[in-house]
Amino acid sequence: MRYRLVLTLAAACVLSGCDQSSVAAPAPGGTAASDMPEVVTFNAHIRPIFSNTCFSCHGFDAKTREADLRLDTPEGAYAKLKDSDEFAIVPGKPDESAVLKRIFSGNPEDVMPPKDFHKDLTDRQKALVRAWIEQGAKYEEHWAFSPVVRPPVPEKNQGNAIDAFILESLESNGIPPSPEADRATLLRRLSLDLTGLPPSTRELEAYLSDDGPDAYGKQVKRLLASPAYGERMAVPWLDVVRFSDTVGYHGDQNVRVFPYRDYVIESFNSNKPFDRFTIEQLAGDLLPESTEEQRIATGFLRLNLMTREGGAQPGEYLAKSMGDRVRAVGAAWLGLTTGCAECHDHKFDPLTARDYYSLGAFFADVRQWGVYADYEYTPNPEIPGANNDWPFPPEIHAKNHAVEQSLEELRAKAVRVLVDMLVPDAPDISEWSEDAGAFLAENPTGWRSLEPGEVSASKGTAHQSSPDHAVLFSGPPRKGEVLALNFPLPDISIR
After folding, report:
1. Quick one: which H or E segment has residue 129?
2. Are residues 235 and 372 located together in one domain of the fold?
3. So what's the pLDDT on residue 20?
4. What confidence score (pLDDT) does residue 16 get?
C-alpha cells in the first residue's frame, strides 16, 4: 500500500501574485537536456510528482482540498482560480500557468510546495512539469483504468520482439547491450526463470550436445512441462493474495490451506485461462454445478488471520477479514491501493470510502470470524454446526494423493496380516487370499450391496431400482401398505 506520504501544494496560500520572472529562468544547477525525455507524459512523469506533492491538498478528496483547486483532473487544472483571473495550468503556455509560477517562485511565502512540508521539487521535476505544460499538459487516465494496448514493436534489427524493446530502452539511456551469454549461462537463466531451479548436470550436458536449430526451444518446452514450473509461477501470485500456511500470529499454528496453494500451482501447470482463474477464486462456489476444485479456489477469500488472543471478538475479525479481502482484490485484479479508502476517500486515486465498503459487501456472506471456535472460546450462533477453525467449509474434503496411496498400502497390508492371523495353516489359504483381495478391490469398505431379487408393494406403490441396487418408491405414502424386498443369499459360507 502507498501510505499517505503525499504532501501538498498549499494549505493556506492562494495561487496569485507570484514572481513571474522566475518561471522562465533555469532552475538552480540546471537540467541537462539529455536527462529529459523527448515526450513528457502525465502517467509516466507527472502523476508521480503530483501524487507525492500536490494531490493531498489538490486532489480527489474534497474534505482536504485547498483553494478549491484540483490538479488530478484536467477540468480542475484548466479552470480559472478562485478569486483570481489566472488559471492553474494553461496548456501550451507555461509562463501563463499559475502552478508553474509557484513551483519556480523564489519567495518562501509563495513557493509550492510550501517549505514547511519538506517536499521540495528537484530541478529535474520542475523541468518535467514545465515541459509537460509546453507540450499541451495532456492528462491521462489512471493506468489501472486504461484498456491494455499492445505497443508497436520498435524497428530494430532483432529477431525477437522482446529484444527489440530492451534494445530501444538501452539505446535511449546510452547503454550498449551486453554480449550474448554462452549456452550454459542461457540454460541456467532459463531454468531459474521458469522453475526456480538450476539445470542438473545431465540436463546441461544434453543441451550442450544438441546442435539443432531448435535446441533452445526444446528446453523451453521441457521446462514448461515440468511440475516445478507451476510452483515457480505460483509464488508471486501467492504473495499478492497473502497466502500462508500458518495463522499469522505469534503462535504461528498451521492452517489447512494447502488445497488452495495446490489449486494455484495446477492452474499454472494446466495453463488455465486467466478469466477462469479469476472467476473461480472470486465466485467458484456460485458456478452452476461447481466442482470441488472450483470451490477450493474460493479459499482465496478465506486466506485471513486467525487468533486465539484473549478478548478477541468475532465481530471485530469479520471486519478485519472484509478489509483484507478488499485490499487483496484491489492489489491482485484492480491495480489499486483500495485499502487507503477504508477510513476516508482515497487521497490520490478515484476511490471513495463508499466504494471501499461497497466492494466489501460482495463478500459479506463469507462468515469467517478469524477467532478460533475450538475449546468453546467463542460460540457459533451465526454458523450453526460449522467449524470456524479451518479455511474451507465442511462440505469440501480435499483429496490428497499421497495420503490416498498410503491408505491403499495400509489396506493391502491389513488384509495380509488378517489372513495370516485367522487361517495360517489352511491348505486353501492362497486361493482364499486371492478371493479376499479381489473382493476388497471391488468393495474397498469391506461391505457389498445386496441386489434385491423381488420387490413388492401391497397397495401398488410404484418403484424402480438403480444401478447401485437401491430401490426408490415414489408417490404418497399409503396407510397400512407393506413394502417387501427379498434378497437371495450369496452362495458362500457365513461364519
Report:
1. helix 123-134
2. yes
3. 40
4. 35
Over residues 268-278, mean pLDDT: 97
C-alpha 89/C-alpha 69 separation (Å) is 11
CA distance 226 to 429: 46
Residue 294 lies in a domain: yes
Considering the domain architecture, whether residues 248 and 348 belong to the same structural domain is answered as: yes
Judgement on whether residues 482 and 359 belong to the same structural domain of the protein: no
Q: Which domain holds residue 419?
A: 401-442
pLDDT tier, 257 (very low <50, low <70, confident <90, very high otherwise)? confident
- Tell me which amino acid residue 94 is: P
Read off the DSSP letter of residue 451.
P
**Residue spans of alpha helices (H) in 351-493:** 353-361, 401-422, 429-442
Same domain, yes or no, for 171 and 215?
Answer: yes
Q: Does the residue 151 lie in any domain?
A: no
Spatial separation of the C-alpha atoms in residues 136 and 11, rounded to whole Å? 27
State the cell numbers at 232: 515457480
Specify the pLDDT at position 24: 46
Same domain, residue pair 202 and 260: no
* Overall domain count for the chain: 5
One domain for residues 286 and 425:
no
Instruction: For residues 223 and 201, give the distance between their C-alpha atoms in angstroms, rounded to a whole number.
Output: 15
> What is the model's pLDDT at position 34?
56
Q: Domain for residue 14, yes or no?
A: no
Task: Say yes or no: 266 and 372 in one domain.
Answer: yes
Rounded average pLDDT over 358-381: 69
Query: Would you say 254 and 246 are in contact if contact means Cβ atoms under 8 Å apart?
Result: yes
**Phi, psi torsion values for 264, nearest 5 degrees:** -65, -45
The grid coordinates of residue 491 equal 452362495
What are the pLDDT digits (tens) for 195-231? 999 999 999 999 999 999 999 999 999 999 999 999 9
Coil, helix or strand at residue 483: strand
Please check whether residue 406 lies inside any domain of the structure.
yes
